[in-house]
Amino acid sequence: AVGLDGMAMGYTAEQTADRFDISEDECNELALRENANVRTAILDGWFANEIVPIEVDGRTIEEDATPDVLTPEIIAAKKKYFVRHPKKGGKLNQFTSSQMSDGSAAIVLCNEAALKEFSWTPMARYVGGAIGTVEARYMGEGLIAAFEQYLRAQGYADGENFRFADWLAKYSKMELNTAFASVPLALMKKHGVPAEIVNVAGGATTPIGHPLGATGVRLTVTLVHLLARFNEKFGYAGACVGEGQGGGVGFENLA
Fold first, then answer.
1. What DSSP state is assigned to residue 126?
2. Exposed site from 44, 203, 207, 218, fewest CB < 10 Å?
3. Which residues contact 86 (CB under 8 A, 6 or more apart)?
């Protein structure tokens, strides 16, 4: 439940879908896209350099589970609305919500002096970060609030006038946590973010899921590896946080 409002997170995501006029079909399309993207990433070995193998019951696990192909027909046949009954206009289901998963992630963030002392070669430079807040009942929109704070901090805004086109000319990858499909879709719709730069290696609607306590770093690790893979310069990772918070970070590729 969300704070004093006593509201399940799924319902906050339904409200965001309504507030940004996001349809059930748009939510399903995002899940289909994330499924296709994560299958490509896993099968083509994109995650090999960012996964540390672990031993479990005598066997080595060195990649995430590869999901079966998701189709509109599968969603239509099996979907169960997360909060609302269909007759009440539910838009989110188990395919468009983050999956249950465990995980851990780590990064080394240091200054230039540490790089010299330990003779490390950096993958990326931390450009900056931002935190934003919204009413708890619109929890997922913390993702938008943080992103807009980042735009302001990096000089891409004049008050409430955001120069997103200028930002997009520089930034070419975004990792946005899909707590529910309506969360990234709301940011994408408000600022005109093209789908082809978002979660290109999949998102939380897939088996990657939303490992609590690890999601922010997991997004960052994937982001810096994607920038290196595609030889692109700047990227942004953001996530909503329970109770109406959100955070985001930007990185410059040095690989």
1. E
2. 44
3. none
